Amino acid sequence: MTETTENSEQIVRDFLGSWGSRNLDTICDGFADDAVYHNVPVQPIEGIDGIRAVFQGFLDAFSAAKLDVVSLAAAPGLVLAERIDYFTMNDGRKVVLPVTGVFEVKNGKITRFSDYFDLADFEAQSGLRL
């Protein structure tokens, strides 16, 4: 499959929008088996099993999540998405986090996903340590 700007953008928008479903399979559907997920302040996670485990951890910690796109730039196989991520912790606390994600797409799947954000801000708001 040859990536186009349109399909690369749609794959990323589908992923970002999927968090509202809280369904792990739906959230992970757009990832290649050998994908890499990197919350840049911490070590990257390699492979879909590791990515699923991290995403399940987020689902376990938050009762709701919404990833709002502020701006998005796409090219064939590459998408940059500036976002505000909104999480509701299980105890009701709110987390509001500015994030920029860089996505590489190949053969219709996300092969690399790197998120850039202020780790100290996330940890202070959420009480979690990544």
UniProtKB/TrEMBL annotation:
Residues 9-122 form the Limonene-1,2-epoxide hydrolase domain. It comes from Mycobacterium paragordonae. Coiled coil: none annotated. Keywords: Hydrolase. Signal peptide: none annotated. It holds the Pfam family LEH. The keyword Magnesium does not apply. One of its GO terms (molecular function) is hydrolase activity. Transmembrane segments: none annotated. This is Limonene-1,2-epoxide hydrolase. The keyword Hydrolase applies.
